[in-house]
Design a protein that fits this description.
Length: 623
């Protein structure tokens, strides 16, 4: 009996290997399959309930299927695994075009079979982005019901959910009636697309306005420039008038062989794929907007729509497309009766807020709107966060070090920017809890302000040690110049020989000494600061900028003075030290990149501080 079980197990293993093999020219495994089929048929061979036909479909083993086809019945091909998938489902999921054609040759009605989730093979192919298989299956006469699964999600929802936008565009052209179908009675395809932030450029790192979002600013700058230089692989094209489908299709642009080889690099390929996905997502969004039903019933006073979704997920280009085509939907409120200006203020979305102030006709009304809890836009501007990383009062316990300083700086700047764009009458409005916007700001930022104070004091103490050390080194170096001093006159010995080079050395040492002393004074002012919220608006950022610049010059002039001292000693001329020059240049370049990476957020803040303070004319509504 035991030998019988072991023999059957060996046969099952051999049949599994033969079915899972994609090679079609090996005769022996095919005989194994045929023999196993005669003995076991459609009996499951794993704990998922898969039969030998499921594994043939997954691997696309057409030769194995052909050898079994004379003995196959329609009932065999209708066999389901534990998930309710037939072999046709598996072939469609993994894009096995030839296998799909073989199965349909036996029985075409298999395309209507549904698995446990109610998914047909057409739905599975759409969700997997298998365009060729989808095209084959789409030739069958599908009804609207067979293009949905049990929860109401259509094939269009499935392609968008899995980022298969090229196929989604084809589906919109083939089945335009699916555009307004709602998943779970709430989300259309456009609503779902409006939640896919990473599918648009505004949600990526490849945007110049988002520089500083990633840990490495220099790398992000390089990637953003590369992104802008990569040519698009897709473009929109209008279908001819004599066609009955929708009016837009996607055309692939042929690339030069040099471009293809260059973008074959894995790093550049990732950037290229991201850009093409952003292009396709925007094309799809425009197509869905053309057919989207914006009508409201008289009872729908609050309707969740793509504009609200796109605003919450900071998909700026989708918001712009919606408002350009349907400007009236800017009046839409969300479930809390907030308009999109409330949302932009809450998330510190600089682009969207400025765009709405410039382009929307009813900006004064939107600025004056109050939500169901009595909160104005200024109340939402009191939220903790930065334009790059939005936080809330529920997450500020994890804020620490430099991030807390940036959050305080941006918090104060954004709050004042929103405040002076509103009518003064709204500044002191209390919400349903009896709190003014400034009171909420202080409450939300209390923990962050304390963390920022601790961070600034700790950093200033550490930097003070460095500046004191540089000051001591340069002060001592001034009185120990190369060559020494003459005993009779007290002047440097090299003064008559290399006067210009010596004066350059003294200049570098003096500049380094002055910069280090200036840094010490600036850092001491941090220790005397009271760290009120308003201090983070102008006073502290300017002091931080001064400290950053002065410590940079102190370090740079100290290094240059060291090199000049080596030059006076003729180190570079009399010895073969070319490697030292290369090493100094390389280290200097790397340290500069690190310095830029560390200090960029502060300079970025200063740019917007100056921009908002001096180059923005505030227009307060008259009420």
């Amino acid at each position: 009996m035991q030998n019988s079980f072991s023999t059957k197990a060996r046969c099952r293993s051999a049949a599994y290997k033969a079915a899972s093999s994609s090679s079609s020219g090996v005769l022996q495994p095919l005989h194994v399959l045929r023999d196993f089929w005669k003995e076991e048929g459609v009996s499951p061979i794993d704990n998922r309930g898969d039969t030998i036909l499921h594994f043939l479909a997954v691997s696309g083993n057409v030769a194995g299927f052909d050898i079994l086809e004379p003995n196959l019945s329609v009932k065999d091909l209708e066999t389901r695994n534990n998930s309710g998938d037939t072999p046709l489902h598996e072939a469609a999921r993994f894009g096995k075009k030839d296998m799909v054609e073989r199965i349909l040759r036996v029985e075409k009605d298999l395309v209507y079979m549904q698995n446990n989730l109610g998914e047909t093979p057409l739905y599975v192919a759409a969700a997997s982005g298998e365009k060729d298989v989808f095209t084959i299956l789409a030739n069958c006469d599908f009804s609207k019901l067979t293009m949905k699964r049990n929860d109401g999600k259509t094939i269009l929802h499935a392609t968008i959910f899995h980022d298969c936008y090229e196929l989604a565009i084809d589906i919109v052209n083939l089945y335009p009636e699916l555009v307004n179908d709602r998943y779970n009675d709430c989300m259309t395809a456009l609503d779902m697309l409006a939640t896919k932030r990473l599918s648009f450029r505004s949600g990526s790192n490849y945007l110049f306005a988002e520089i500083g979002k990633t840990p490495s600013v220099p790398v992000q700058m390089i990637e953003t420039i590369i992104y802008s230089c990569i040519p698009p692989r897709y473009k929109e094209s209008k279908l001819s008038d004599n066609q009955t489908q929708a009016g837009t299709k996607v055309v692939c642009v042929e690339r030069l062989s040099f471009t293809k080889s260059l973008l074959g690099n894995s790093w550049l390929q990732a950037i290229d794929e991201a850009k093409q996905k952003h292009i396709l997502a925007l094309i799809l969004a425009k197509m869905l907007l053309e057919k989207y039903d914006w009508s409201y019933s008289s009872t729908d006073h609050i309707v969740s729509n793509p504009l609200i979704q796109a605003s919450k997920h900071k998909i700026d280009e989708l918001v712009v497309e919606i408002l350009q085509k349907y400007p009236e939907v800017v009046e839409t409120l969300d479930e809390k009766k907030r308009n999109i200006l409330h949302i932009a203020a809450e998330h510190k979305n600089r682009f969207l807020f400025d765009y709405l102030l410039k382009k929307v006709a009813s900006q004064n009304r939107m600025l004056a709107d109050i939500d169901e809890n009595g909160n104005t836009i200024l109340h939402y501007a009191a939220n903790v966060g930065t334009p790059f990383f939005t936080s809330t009062t529920e997450h500020i316990e994890s804020v620490w070090c430099v991030m807390s300083v940036l959050m305080m700086m941006w918090g104060v700047l954004w709050f004042k920017y929103i405040k002076y764009n509103m009518h003064p009458r709204l500044w002191d409005v209390k919400n349903s809890e009896g709190l003014k916007a400034e009171e909420i700001f202080e409450k939300n930022h209390l923990h962050v302000r304390k963390e920022a104070e601790t961070a600034v004091r700790n950093l200033s103490n550490s930097t003070l040690v460095l500046s004191t050390l540089l000051c001591t080194i340069n002060f001592a170096a001034i009185f120990t110049v190369p060559g020494g001093f003459e005993e009779r006159t007290g002047l440097p010995i090299l003064l008559d020989k290399v006067q210009q080079e010596l004066w350059m050395l003294m200049f570098y040492l003096g500049a380094a000494l002055f910069s280090s002393v200036f840094t010490m004074g600036t850092l001491l002012s941090f220790l005397l600061c009271k760290f009120y919220s308003n201090d983070f608006y102008i006073s502290l950022p300017i002091k931080i900028i001064i400290a950053i610049i002065s410590i940079f010059y102190a370090t740079a002039f100290t290094i240059v003075a060291c090199l000049q001292a080596l030059n006076l000693e003729n180190i570079f001329l009399n010895k073969d030290v070319w490697w030292l020059i290369i090493a100094v240049v390389a280290v200097g370049f790397i340290m500069t990149l690190i310095y830029v990476d560390l200090t960029f957020p502060v300079f970025d803040y200063m740019y917007y501080l100056v921009s908002y303070s001096f180059f923005v004319s505030y227009k307060r509504g008259h009420m």
